[in-house]
Every structure is written in C-alpha cells, then in structure tokens.
TrEMBL record:
Compartment(s): Gas vesicle
Protein name: GvpL/GvpF family gas vesicle protein
Domain of life: Bacteria
Keywords: Gas vesicle
Coarse class of the protein's main subcellular location: other
InterPro entries, per database record: GvpL/GvpF
UniProt key word tRNA processing: no
Family per similarity comment: Belongs to the gas vesicle GvpF/GvpL family.
Location of the region described as Disordered in the Swiss-Prot/TrEMBL record: 133-159
TM ranges: none
C-alpha cells in the first residue's frame, strides 16, 4: 500500500505482537519501523487526506477528528499492553519510511532519555467534581416577607456557596497531595470546560499521575478509599494510559 506514513508512537523493540485485527488511522494496520534501537509504530494514510493542506482542513472537522483520534488512541492503547510507548501528536505524518528514520535519528537522544524515565510506568487520571449547587439550595426558598428578609436569604445562600467551594478546594488539594506522594510524578491540568466535557458539577481537580505499572493496583485502591469521604464530591479515575502528560514535547 502506498501513501504517507502516519506515526503513532516511539518505543523500544517489543516481542509481543499487536492484535492481528488492529486497525489504525484510515483503516491500515500499524507496523513497526526499527531504527538504531528505537521503534516507530506507523501505518499508511492517503495523501488526499493527510498532506499538509487537507490535514489542516480536516482538523477543523469535528466528526473526522473524532474518528481519527479514536483510531489513533486504539493503537496507543494496544501498545500500552505490550510495551511503554511514547505517544506522538495526533496527525504526525511523514512522506515515507526514510522521513520517519530521519526523525528518529535527529531525536534519538531525547527519545531514549524519555523512554528510560517512562519505562514500566503508566498514567492515571483523576478528576474531582463538586456539585454546582449545595443541597440545601435545591430546596424551595421561603418567600421573603420583606426586602430585609430577601437580602438575608441572599447572604445566607452566598455564604453557603462559598463554604461549599472552600470545602471542595480543600478536599481536592489534600487528595492531590496524597496521590502525588504515592506517584513518581504528577501534572495539574486546567479544569475541564463543562460545555465540552458535558460533565455535571464543577471540575475542581484535573490531574495526571505517573505510577509504576506494578503499583497501579495500590494507586487505584488509594483513590477508591477517598470516594464518599466528602458529600457532594464525585471522583473519576481513568487509566491506565500511555504517559501522555509526562512525555514532553512529543506527547499529544
């Protein structure tokens, strides 16, 4: 099959083959391209969609982008089960195998150094959401008998909101400190935009943690023990992922 080379990740040589039915971006099965002790996992993609100009247009097409990102992530997930991949950005494309090898050679030291640091480690994501309204605010407020009563009710509601957010911030800060102490490294990401994530509540913690694969079960148990600790807090754990947040410039 002819076409451009789409690169998913860089890793060390691995002996376990990927699933035979695995399909990559544009439906082409991924393959390993080895150069100087590094492996680039690549597949063929059509020039009509992945040359510079059409790719730029496609990246503004949400449906196309979603489908491509899903296929990209599927290959990364498959790699994570057999090795420690260093994911590259979505849409990393080269003209041919020679171009991929040139990239590997130019960045060999950086790739080797990062792979040394990530070897045998995975990323876990933890998000904490606080209810957008305190429970007592969900109850119908009594009709104010006067303007003074109305102002008193408003001040009480404001205090209730402030106390709730303070508790949420304190809870998430303490949780992040606990998880960071267990993990080898951590990253705080900006809170998610609810309009994009469709998640309910206010995102007060959005963090990633680098954990040795062998210690992942303990990390999951640590997170699980905090669930239900503070009413109104919802904790979401995702992973294990390839270490996107800790892969430096190469990461998505």
């Amino acid at each position: 099959m002819t076409g451009l080379r789409y690169v998913y990740a860089v890793c060390r040589p691995f002996g376990t083959p990927l699933q035979s039915q695995l399909k990559g971006v544009a439906g082409d099965p991924p393959r390993a391209l080895t150069h100087h002790g590094l492996v680039a996992v690549v597949s063929h993609v059509p020039e009509r969609d992945f040359a510079e100009e059409p790719l730029h247009r496609h990246l503004e097409d949400l449906d196309w982008l979603t489908e491509t990102a899903r296929a990209h992530q599927g290959v990364i997930d498959a790699l994570t089960t057999v090795t420690t991949p260093l994911p590259l950005r979505l849409g990393t494309v080269f003209r041919d195998d020679s171009g991929v090898r040139t990239m590997l050679e130019a960045r060999e030291e950086d790739f080797q150094r990062t792979l040394d640091r990530l070897e045998g480690r995975v990323e876990w994501g933890v998000k904490v959401y606080a209810e957008s309204e305190p429970k007592e605010a969900a109850q119908p407020a009594q009709k104010a008998a006067s303007g003074r009563d109305y102002l008193r009710q408003r001040r009480a509601q404001t205090r209730s909101h402030e106390e709730m957010w303070q508790k949420a911030e304190s809870f998430s800060t303490h949780l992040h400190e606990q998880l960071s102490a267990f993990a080898e490294d951590s990253r705080l990401h900006p809170p998610q935009n609810p309009a994009l994530s469709k998640a309910t509540g206010r995102n007060v913690l959005n963090a990633a943690y680098l954990v040795p694969r062998a210690h992942s079960e303990e990390f999951v148990e640590l997170v699980d023990r905090t669930k239900g600790e503070l009413p109104g807090m919802r904790i979401e754990l995702t992973g294990p992922w390839a270490a996107y947040s800790f892969a430096g410039e190469a990461a998505t």
